[in-house]
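Per reviewer request, we include the raw input and output of the structure prediction for the construct analysed in the revised manuscript.
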Amino acid sequence: MVKVVLATGVFDLLHYGHLKFLEESKKAGGPGAKLIVVVARDRTVEKRKGVKPVLPEDQRRALVEALKPVEAAFLGYEEMNMEKVIQELKPDLIAVGYDQDDIYQSVINIVRKGYKVDVVRIGHFGPGDLDSSSKIKRKVIEELRKL
């Protein structure tokens, strides 16, 4: 039986850490798994992080969907609703990133309601000064200040 794996994220300024997260998420589903990704809406990101993403939601979704491990990518709900996403996409497995503590706890609480979904944490991928969008933004600012 082919498993459907669900992963979520902002995926702003797509970088190597994002790619590794998605590759490992798909691997966690086993041979032939299909990876579905829900990309956070601009308004959701602004509410949760206090700043808008650099890239607009439609571009972030298209970039994620173009990655080799991804079967399909969708925009999430503006009012983040993981339970509704689980009900609609019916994943067998939900992969959560090492830095997504709030999402992890939310998913665990939803699954405990009786959904037959496994949840796995995907680890961090080695040391790196450019392994997050925030670090990339800081690096660009530092380089611009040198000019």
